[in-house]
Predict the 3D structure of the following.
Amino acid sequence: MSHRTEAMNRMLFAALSGISSLSAWAQQRPNVLIIVADDLGYGDVSAYGSRTIQTPNIDRLARGGVCLTNGHAASATSTPSRYGLLTGMYPWRKKTHILPGDAPLIIDEGQFTIARLFQQAGYRTGAIGKWHLGLGRGKVDWNHTIKPGPNEIGFDYSCILPATVDRVPCVYVENGNVLGLDPDDPIEVSYKKNFEGQPTALTHPELVTKVTWSHGHNNTVINGIPRIGFMRGGKAALWKDEDMADFLVGKVKDFIESHDGSQPFFLYYGLHEPHVPRIPHPRFEGSTTMGPRGDVIAEADWCVGEVLRKLQEKGILDNTIVIFTSDNGPVLDDGYRDQAAELVGHHDMNGGYRGGKYSLFEAGTRVPFFVYWQGHIRPVTSNALVAQQDLLASFAHMLSQPVPDGLDSENHLSAFLGKSKRGRKGMVTEAVGRLAYRTKDYALLPAYKGAKRNITGNEMGIVDTLSLFDLKTDSMQQHNVIRRHPKLARRMQDAMERAIKGTPNDSH
Ligand code: NG6
Ligand code: CA
C-alpha cells in the first residue's frame, strides 16, 4: 500500500469515526416533544424554588433533567417567540408582532423549520395546541381547507387553536379543516367590523357570564366570554374553554398512541395556559389560593403529568426527549377581570426578575426551560445562556442533519443535554419591537419606556438612557453600571449591531 493510500485511509477512518461518535446520538433517534406554555413565568413553577405554587409534574422534568436557569424565549410576546423557536431565526428580522386571528401565515412555505428538520431526519411530526403564526395567505375562508398552515411548513399532523384563546375564531383547526363545522352554518371572521345583528359584549353585556373584560376583549361573546375580534356562525364547532386542556392533551395522547415505533416522532405541544381567558376545568377550580390564574397553572401541570404517564405506559419515556418551556414571561391582568392581581398574594411569578410579558427586562424572556430524557441525562442545574431558537441547530447536530446557512440558531446540544455549562456568548432579545442584548451575566437595554399604564400587574419601568445591568448581583435591574464597565457595554453594543446587520452566527 502506498503512503498516499495509507494516509487517505487514515483520513477516511478518522472521518468515519468522527461521524460515528456524532451519530451515536443520531442512531438512537429519540422522539422529541417540546411543550410550550403560554405566558408562564420563571416564578410560576416550583422547580426554581417558588413555595407559593406547586407544579410537581413540571418539576419532575426539572429535577430529573437539565434545569436551565438562563433559558430565553426570542421575544416577550407569543407570535415572535414561536416564530423564533420554529424557524431558528430572530423574529425581528421578519418584523412580526402579536397576530390577529385572521392573519396570514408568517412562515414562508419554502422556509426551513424545526419540523422540516425532523421530517428530513425521517421523523413523523405534529403540532397540537396554540399556533399563533397565522394561517392561509390572507382573507381566510374558514369553511374550506385552510392552506398554508402547519402542514405546509413541516408538520405531518396538526390540531391547533389558530391564534390565542382570547381571539376569534374560537374553533380548532385539524389538518387545515375546522373541526366539527356544520357546512350549513358557515363561519365568518372579521377584525375590522362587526357583522350586522351580531351582539357584542358592549351591546349585550348580559351574554358575558363567565369572566368580564378589563381592557380590550369586548367584541363577540363566545361561551359566555367576550373576545377580541368578530365572529359569526360555526356554532357546532365552537370550543368550550373549560374542556380545552382535556381536548388538547387527548389529541397529544392520540398522537403518541399512534406511534408504532417504525418512525420516531417530533411533537410541538402548545399549552393554552395560563394565557387569558383563564377558564379551568371545574375539577381544577379552587385548586390554588390564587384564583383562575393559579388554577389553570395547576391544570397545565396536570397535562404535563398526563403526557409523561402516556409515554411511560407506551414504554417510550426513556426514548423521548421532553422539553418544557414558555413562550414569554408572565402577566396578571391581561384584559379580563379574573382576580389575578387581587389573589396573587406573595406569589412572585417573575421569580425575582424585573418586568414580565411585553417587557425588555429579564422576566420578559427568561422563562422556565427544562430538558428531560429519562435514563440519558444526569440531573443538573445549568446557567448556560440558551435560547429557544437554538433547539433547531442543536437537534440538527444531534441527528447529523444539514441546515441552511444564515440561521440565528446556534448548536448548544451539549448545554441542552447537560454535558456542558457553556451556552451562547450573547443574544438579542425583543419586546414589542424594541431590542436588547444580553450575555450570560449582563443585559444591555436601550433607553426604554415600558407600558404606559401599569395595567398588567408588571412593573414595566423606564430606562432613560442606555443601561447595563449586572444580573449576577442585580436581578431586579435597578442599577445601571455602564459607567463602571464602559468597554463591556461597547463590546455588547457592537455585538448587537453585528447581529442586527445579519452576520447571524457571529452574534457574540
Ligand atoms: C394583547 C391582548 C392580550 C393578549 C396579547 C397576546 C388586549 C388589550 N390585550 O394585545 O390580552 O392576547 O395581546 O398575548 O387586547 S400573546 O401571549 O399571545 O402574545
Ligand atoms: Ca404568550
